[in-house]
Every structure is written in C-alpha cells, then in structure tokens.
Design a protein that fits this description.
Blueprint: E1 8-12, H1 15-18, H2 59-73, E2 77-81, H3 84-87, H4 98-113, E3 117-123, H5 129-135, H6 142-157, E4 164-168, H7 178-182, H8 193-217, E5 222-228, E6 232-234, H9 239-261, H10 266-275, H11 285-288, E7 295-299, E8 304-306, E9 330-331, E10 337-338, H12 340-354, E11 358-362, E12 372-373, E13 379-380, H13 384-403, E14 407-413, E15 433-435, E16 447-449, H14 451-461, H15 465-470
Helix pairs in contact: 2-4, 6-8, 12-13
Length: 471
C-alpha cells in the first residue's frame, strides 16, 4: 500500500460556512456576517436576510449528527475552524466568552469519542467584525496581540483535545481579497502594495508567535501554515513565459517561504525595492519569525497557466485567483479547470522546497447535485462525477507518496454541503452528505448520504487500496 499506516483521511469545513447561529450564546459578528454574496458582492452595514451563512447548515445545533456521519465514513481527521468571535465577540476583550468555549469543548469531545482527530484552523476568513471596522484588521499591528490572546486561550482550553492546528487559512488570499483574508475594512482599491505587505508581515509575526506559544503550552502538538496552492504552468516554452511562471509562483510561495523557513527570501526584498515598499518591522520580529511551522498544508482545486503577455489568451476561472485558460484541461460547472496530475506536481514542488510533512487541507468538486428518491424510498445523489474527480486526485496523491513525498493526510473540502466561500451560494455543493437547503434559504436541513459517501467510506476502510481497483 502506498498510503502510510496512520494516514489522516477526512474532510474539511469552516465555521462561517456551516455553523449558523451567528449571534447565539454571546457570539459577536464576524466579517462574514456582512458579506452576503461572498467575495464577489458588496459589504453590508448589518447582517441581511439573504446571507445564507447566518444559518449555514445549522452545524451549531446538529454537530453530533454530522460528526456521527463523518465517523460512519471512517474519518481519522476533521479539519474545522473556531469562530474567533465566539470566543472573543469583539476581538479585543480581555475575558473570553465561556459559552463559545463550551461549544467547541462539545464538538471536540464528540470527534474524539469517534476516534476523529480535530485539525483546527484558528483564523478561517472570519475576523471579528469589530476588529475589521475599528482597527482595519491585521493592517493594524495591535491586532497581533488580540490574535495571540485568542490563541493562548484556546491552546490552554483544548490542550488535551487538539494536537493539530493551522494558523491562517489560505494566508496568501490577502493579496487579492484583503477583507476576507486579513479583516482589512479599507476598500481594496484604496490599498497600496505597502499596505498589503505590511499586513502580511503582521500575519507572519502572529503566526510565528502562535507556533511558539503552541509548542510551550502543548509540547507534542503540531502547527501548520496553509496556502492556496495554485501553481502555474507556462503557456509556451518561450523563455519569457517561463520567467512569468516563476514570478507568479513566487506570489504564492512567498507566504509559505516565510512561515516554513523563518525569514524573508531575497527575491521578495528585491521586489520591495522595485515597488518602493518598506515594511516596518519592530525589534525582535526577525527572531520571532524563526518559529517555523511543523507542516505545510494547502488547498488544491486547480492549476493555472500564465504567460508574459496574458492579454492574448482566454482568461480562466478560479476560486480566489485565476490565470490563463489551459486548453488541455476539462472544467467544472463553475469553469474551474480539473487537473489531478497538478496535485502530484504541487505535492512534489512543496516537498522539494521545504522537506516538511504536507497535508492536503482542501480538495473537492463543487457541482449542482440533484436529490432523487430510490425505489426503496430513500433519498440520495448519484454523484459519479464527484467520485471520478476525487478518485483521480487521490490517485495522484498516492503517486506523490510513491515519489517520496511525506503526505500526512487528506481532507476533502466541504465533506458535508455548506455555503460556498467565494459566492455564498448553496447550490455549489461539495459534500458526501446532501443538506436540504436551497438558494432562497428554504429547506428542511435534513441530511442525506450521496453515492460518494459509500465510495469514500470504502477508500478509507482500505487505506486507499480500493482506488487501484477502480483504475
């Protein structure tokens, strides 16, 4: 078997996309509560009824039922996030909200009762709204202290329950979506490159300090970073297209370089000189950054193409970023190009660069699923398209492991249907479990197993062995 013993099979969800209960038990507002259309729509003054995330899939009240279904599939790990504003409603309080802490106690206890390890993301696109409005998020260095207070609180609280952690979800998203990525309330068009890189520095310092405190509070715990792992192919072998590919990849790798290596690479310093950027660092920052992460995690949905002159090519579609359309690849219903071999390439690229364990923190297919009734009167979704997508990608994970890459685990994104991050839609479904909720907010919220549920159950049961029989 290529998948190692102890491989962490599982799935991934995010608090703001599934929990709902957006003001229950003392929770404060997060930036997601005023983003009813995701990153593509306007920010509202107050939460509006059309924001599906306010209810999500009601995981807050149904987590026992959902985790039981994950356990039935055989999950070894569940990647989930803590809603920062459940613990500190405004973000800058000195005393945490006990009701919020109790909720995650119950969630983690339920996971552990089934033998599922929680993999907890500390900040998954859900900065407290107060910190965004009053401080401009991580553009303000003061927010580092609030973040570390939150980290220390949950590390102490869950030190006997959680041993795998991630600091910031897709930290490189700050380049393109500063509000979602770093809680910056200033409109994107008013921000300079200086502002983005200064914010990134503050997040790097916060991440490194979180690593330091985690190792002190929970010595056997592991902390990872997480980036949006969409690497580039050159459109042609023209040397200038190769240089363009190198430069685009550095946009992504810069964020992993600092957290995995503990210092700023020379190429980014040269870029700062060229762009007139001067990142302000306080004494001790460079030493703090040496607290590097224990593993690298990333999301992977597609690869991208690029060229020295992208204007002469058709533009592709993507999750949070897009490149030039690759003529050799098929596309999903949302235009995302499907490239299983690109996952093998990405795993090898990261491992060659860092020699640290890797975790595929997100991977999956968003599609419009049709719920149907079978002759035995049960309901399901015949999502063979999803099975094909996941089978092909997992086979490439296996190939990467055979290449010698140290892969810790794999978490299928949206293992239960939830509200999408990019567009805040319900119809873009990823899960092995169908949730009866519609685009207009109606629906019973009942859960139904899709065909892929049984398929993934068999994959996990055989530690990936069943993949070979399908090829």
């Amino acid at each position: 078997m290529s998948f190692p013993t102890g491989f962490l099979w599982g799935g991934a969800i995010a608090a703001n996309q599934c929990e709902g209960a957006y003001l229950e038990d003392g929770k404060g507002l997060s930036i997601q509560d005023v983003m009813p259309k995701g990153v593509v729509g306007p920010v509202t003054e107050e939460p509006t009824p059309d924001n599906l995330k306010l209810i999500g899939i009601d995981f807050y009240h149904r987590y026992r039922e959902d985790i039981k279904l994950f356990a039935e599939m055989g999950f070894k790990v569940l990647r989930l996030s803590i809603a920062w504003s459940r613990i500190f409603p405004k973000g800058d309080e000195e005393v945490p909200n006990e009701a919020g802490l109790i909720f995650y106690d119950k969630v983690f206890d339920t996971c552990l009762s089934y033998g599922i390890e929680p993999l907890v993301t500390l900040s998954h696109y859900e900065t407290p709204l107060y910190l965004a409005k009053q401080y401009d998020g991580f553009l303000n260095r003061k927010v580092i202290d609030f973040f570390i207070r939150y980290c220390e609180t949950v590390f102490h609280r869950y030190k006997n329950k959680v041993k795998y952690w991630i600091t910031f979800n897709e930290i490189n998203a700050v380049r393109h979506f500063p509000l979602m990525g770093a809680g910056i309330f200033t409109p994107k068009e008013k921000l300079r490159a200086q502002d983005i890189y200064q914010t990134a520095h503050h997040e790097f310092v916060a991440s490194a300090m979180a690593v330091k405190f985690l190792h002190e509070i929970i010595p056997d715990a592991k902390m990872g970073c997480m980036v949006l792992g969409a690497l580039n192919y050159p459109m042609t072998p023209h040397p200038q297209d190769m240089i363009a590919m190198m430069e685009r990849d550095r946009d992504c790798m810069f964020f992993a370089d600092v957290q995995a290596r503990g210092y700023y690479p020379l190429y980014i310093k040269k870029l700062w000189e060229k762009e007139g950027v001067h990142v302000v660092m306080e004494p001790g920052d460079e030493e703090v950054l040496r607290n590097t992460v224990d593993f690298i995690s990333f999301s992977y949905y597609m690869s991208k193409c690029t060229a020295a002159d992208t204007s002469i090519y058709e533009k592709g579609k993507g999750n949070l970023t897009s490149g030039v359309r690759n003529p050799y690849l098929k596309e999903s219903e949302w235009g995302w190009q499907i490239d299983p071999a690109g996952l093998r390439y990405t795993l090898n690229y990261f491992y060659d660069r860092y020699q640290k364990p890797l975790f595929v923190a997100e991977n999956g297919l968003g599609a419009i699923d049709e719920l149907m009734q079978l002759p035995d009167l049960t309901f399901t979704v015949l999502d063979d398209y999803r099975i094909t997508y996941l089978r092909d990608h997992l086979s490439e994970v296996e190939n990467a492991i055979e290449d010698g890459v140290d892969v810790m685990g794999y978490a299928a994104w949206g293992c239960i249907d939830l509200v999408s991050a990019s567009t805040a839609q319900m119809k873009k479904r990823y899960g092995f479990i169908y949730v009866d909720r519609n685009e207009d907010g109606t629906g019973s919220l009942a859960r139904y197993k899709k065909k892929s549920f049984d398929w993934y159950q068999q994959v996990i049961k055989t530690n990936g062995g069943s993949l070979k029989s399908e090829l």
